[in-house]
Each structure stands twice: as structure tokens, then as C-alpha cells.
Amino acid sequence: xxxxxxxxxxxxxxxxxxxxxxxxxxxxxxxxxxxxxxxxxxxxxxxxxxxxxxxxxxxxxxxxxxxxxxxxxxxxxxxxxxxxxxxxxxxxxxxxxxxxxxxxxxxxxxxxxxxxxxxxxxxxxxxxxxxxx
Length: 133
Fold this sequence. Notes:
Layout: H1 10-13, H2 17-49, E1 53-64, E2 67-76, E3 82-89, E4 95-103, E5 109-117, E6 124-132
Antiparallel strand pairs: 1-2, 2-5, 3-4, 3-6
């Protein structure tokens, strides 16, 4: 008569060690991926909500060979102070003027025409940056 086995061989039909390790790695990778996406989302939210001052050049005008004007619209929190940097460019793209303009008014929206001195005739005025403080 033949002997009857009561238990199956462990490694033959059950999960192997490699399968258990793969499952653990998938779980760890998923957790790290979700944490990374959360971190990227937090940085994006902080960057967008942390902008105290935003501005744009509505239009610009070349007043003379040594002066350019720009209509600047600034949006900020009422209590925030800040400054914006503008630069004037020549036809070949070289910078011919740069100036900082301070905004201390207690208003949320400021429309102002500002003037930049230039070293030679400018063809364009562009906003470089705005910052609080």
C-alpha cells in the first residue's frame, strides 16, 4: 500500500520568497510614488499661493532715443509692499535700460505709467520680475 501525504510541499504550491519580495517592493514603490506626487502638489500650491505681487506690462511706448515708457499694472495684497524690475531692449535684443519701481500704495491694484532711461534707442520694454518686500 502506498503512503498518503497529508501536507503539500511548501515551496512547490505556495508563494515563493521572490513573489513575496515582489509584492513588498510594489507596495513600497506605490507608497513612495504617492508621497512624491503629494510633495509636487504641495510645492505647486505653495508657489501659486505664495505670489504676493503679480504684474504685467499693458503697453509700452518709446518716448525718445534715451527714454521708454511702460504702462504697468500691479496686483498685490493691500498691505504688501514690493518692487518690479523692467528692462528696455534694443532692436538686436541687447539690454539698453533697466530700472526698479517700488510700489508702497495701500491698494490691491495699481495702474502706473513708468519711465526708463536708456543708453540707446529701445524697441521694446519687458517685465523682468516682481517681488514683495
